[in-house]
Design goal:
By secondary structure, this protein is α/β, with parallel strands linked by helices. The chain is built from seven helices and five strands; from the N terminus they run E-H-E-H-E-H-H-E-E-H-H-H. The chain is elongated.
């Protein structure tokens, strides 16, 4: 099953879009992102919903304080292999911020397949083919990262992970574990040794303060 994320501050057409996609492509699911108000919450929702490609409405500034193109720029920094597309009801030339390439912008009329017009159906099918290809690329890239993650995990277990590798290890773990590609680990395996040692020092400090107050 392909999971296609959908973000829109006024998702009135979402049920219609989801139904049309499912009718023609039973192996594809359009997933509405709800209960998000910040960019970081949208990123967390990506992991929670395990989406493999993302459709984002352009005009969202009145609800969130940022448009879809700005959100895509942020997501690209956080989840680099996830392809994001703008869906817009405005003319393409009105998108002037240069944050998303033209090939990653589609009019919402792409879902307009009423009457089974051959031209409209073909355009929709081509659009879905692009989404499917992007999802397949995302899956392949995640699979390639599993071996690197295993390598870093072994280094961490042997106490040989430096600070730069620690960041890479945590980043890979978050993505791969969220998508069920690696096993969930206990919290003790996620923090750095420095953070663990600092935690122990703080506990000792608290105990000393409590004893002093007595």
């Amino acid at each position: 099953m392909y999971r296609i994320g959908y973000i829109d501050d006024e998702p009135t057409q979402y049920p219609n879009y989801a139904k049309k996609l499912k009718r023609r492509y039973p192996d594809m699911e359009l997933v509405l992102f709800q209960d998000c108000s910040t960019k970081s919450e949208f990123v967390e929702k990506i992991y929670e919903e395990q989406v493999e490609v993302l459709l984002i409405d352009y005009k969202m500034a009145s609800s969130y304080g940022f448009n879809g193109t700005t959100l895509i720029s942020y997501i690209n920094d956080q989840v680099r292999d996830l392809e994001c597309f703008i869906l817009t009801a405005v003319e393409q030339e009105r998108i002037e911020d240069n944050l998303v390439t033209t090939r990653n912008r589609f009019s919402k009329t792409i879902f307009d397949t009423e009457g089974d017009s051959p031209d409209k159906v073909q355009a929709f099918n081509e659009f879905v083919a692009v989404l499917r290809e992007c999802a397949d690329v995302f899956r392949t890239r995640q699979e390639q990262k599993v071996s690197r993650y295993r390598e870093l995990l072994e280094q961490k277990q042997n106490g040989k992970l430096n600070s730069n590798d620690e960041d890479e290890y945590l980043s890979l773990y978050k993505v791969l574990s969220s998508y069920g590609m690696v096993e969930k680990l206990p919290q003790s395996m996620l923090g750095s040794e420095f953070e663990q040692d600092l935690g122990e020092l703080l506990k000792v400090g608290d105990a000393i303060l409590k004893e002093y107050k007595k």
